[in-house]
Amino acid sequence: METAISYWKRYFTPDVVAQVERIKQDMYIMSTGVRIHMDVYEQPDKRAPVLMFNHGGGGYSRIFAPLALAMHARGYTVVLPDQRGQGYSDGDRGDFTLAQCVQNIVDAAQWARQRYAGKLFMAGGSVGGGLTYKAAAAGAPVDAIICHNLYDFGSARDALSVSRFAFASDLPLLPDIFAASTRMMASLLPSLKLPFMLLGKFESMVDERDPDFFNIWREDPLPIKNISLRYMASTFATPPAIPYEQNRMRVLVVNQTRDKMVSPAVTRRNYERLSGDKHYVEIDYGHWATGAQFIAEYVEILERYLRSEESAQSLASST
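The chain above was modelled as a monomer; its predicted structure follows.
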């Protein structure tokens, strides 16, 4: 009998489901006062490199099972945490802040650093790309990060750019008016929730090569369905602890040229703001993708970058 816990199997073939059930472990930590769930694909060798991947606003850990399996097959321990109130984690569904999500990621990274001896890398997609940068800037003990999309949620312009109101993001004063109005409403009714599907262009999440994903995702009981004004206000007022212009972390930014959900120009603009050791690559896909060809290309990009980081760090430590 299918339940909310087992619905994830609809996304994948029986072979993929069998691999996940054979390798994946469910682990938990406490963070921001609630129990945070993590899917963990662990290597026997604690010295193996570790990749932690952070989901975006409409996702959760199990959706990224093919990516986890592919990276695990290449020798990585893979950790996929569910942020507060999302996926299999505890907390009021849809009522949280970006700062709480960042802290969940920081705490998960600290757990991984204590448990494993290998290099720790962190990645994230969509909103998770921006959260990955924010968590690293807030002290997550990682060696390098990969931001699949890079959004600045201390910017009213960016907050609008990732929503259905993107048309207003470049108009004079409108982003600030949106931000002030949202903060005022949140101060009065912080827990009031609005339909999540109405806020983002989720029907454009994938391109034409993924014809089935959206319909399966739309019926999935685990992604959040409503979002609070408290959360919405936080998307206008959660800047990174280290501004992009002052970045000193190793960062790879991945941008997708077919993105119809959020303009690729947003990520490109934020990449250009980054200082420090930064790298940039574009991929010919939509906001996200799920096919075997995408996973193969994406894993190749990740591993090429991560292997170069491991080599560079090993060389630096030996000199």
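The radius of gyration is 19 Å.
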